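Re: that chain you flagged

S.,

Sorry for the slow reply, it's been a week of failed gels. I finally had a moment to sit down with the sequence you sent. For the record, here it is as I used it:
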Amino acid sequence: MSDETMPIEDYLAQGGLLTSPDNVPPRYRGELLRLMASFVDSELAGSAGFADVINDAPGIKERIAAARIVLEKADHAGRVLEIMGDFGADTARYAVHHPWSARLPRDADIGAERRGGDMRLSVLHYPLEGWIDAVVMNVLMGKAVVIQLGELARISYQPLAEVLRSILPRETRHAELGIEGLKRIAETGEGRRAAREALAYWRPRVAASFGLSGSTRYHMLARLGLRHTPNEALLAEWQKAIDAELAALNLN
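Prediction finished late last night. Pasting the structure tokens below so you have them in one place:
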């Protein structure tokens, strides 16, 4: 059966790719925009959060690492925002019209719920408290982002997939910078104690960013070629990777 006569969902479910806003069906368009908005909002919120802790860095090397993360996350948001603009999204509002640094109280418990009028991942609604807290969060979330981006880089909308594949190496480096910083922190007893406290706080919140196990939405997105691996499988991959990193630093 040729692509011209095959139903669009069958085409996508069999690995077909779309290349232009002009040939995407309405439901696909809505889900794709939702996915892109979540990525853009999360990158902007993450960038804003790290900007607030640059001055907490204990040295020049750490300050440069934090500044690099702030800059590159904002750049990543801009790249995906350009694709949203191709679909008619109001890209101007992202520049100055939203409080990306806004956070909920530290003791809030919102699970995977979105809040505050944007589509950022729920973990990015919680505030950072100092340098060690920020490094631990970056280690956990950095590894999560790498795994989640690896999933999204296979997306059926080819222009977005290409952009995400180009972003993945830089997000991988962000995660590596976090590990380097945590290794220095864990060299002292006081640093290990503070790091373990931060791990206890951030680990369940980052885990929630993978979404619900057994999600019914996943199957719909998979038929559209917008997802390929279930939430619980991605979460398990993250848990295994984090356990290995923490074991190497004696922080289990």
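What I noticed first: Residues 21-97+124-249 form a domain with the Ferritin fold (CATH 1.20.1260.10).

Talk soon,
D.
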